[in-house]
Give the backbone structure.
Amino acid sequence: MRASVGVVRGVVAGIVPGDEVEAGHRAETLEWLRSTDDVFRRVKPATPPRHLVSYVVPVDPADGAVLLVDHVNAGLWLPPGGHVDPDEDPAETARREAYEELGVPVESGLVGDEPVFVTVTRTVGIDAGHTDVSLWFLLRLGREQPLTLDSGEFREARWWSPAEVHDADPTRFDPHFTRFCSKLQQMRC
């Protein structure tokens, strides 16, 4: 097994599922990681057709609000994030994406430097049709933090309070986002 895939497998094995859906995604991801070393995207948008993604989810520790971006390609409000480069540690991907997409340098601040959620999702939008295996990392970030958005990828960014997420149409988000928020509330980050 490729050493970097072994690291990812260990990281995924350490995620404690918050519900039955996540338990299924975790099991599916572990089986996939056992079956292949071809887990990093090599060619945009979909080679190989299933590949690793790191989301970095900024959470305001003061009130639990979450920063989401209006993603141009997906047409959804998503956490910032991107594809894990070949042999890159997924936590490093999360730090890199926080800087590239939000202009936020992250030396530390990722909660535990380990993902707290795993999902397997068929993509939608302009690059629809492949499968993202996403590792969700938390980033403590206050609303006062200045941001420099990647205008090529996002229309805008905004903070969503837990009440706003609850009241919003769930189809506006990643299909697993409301489950992620439920897990986040259970964690009391």
User: Anything to note?
Assistant: Residues 20-35 form the longest helix (16 residues). The CA atoms of residues 70 and 77 lie 4 Å apart. The longest strand covers residues 50-59.
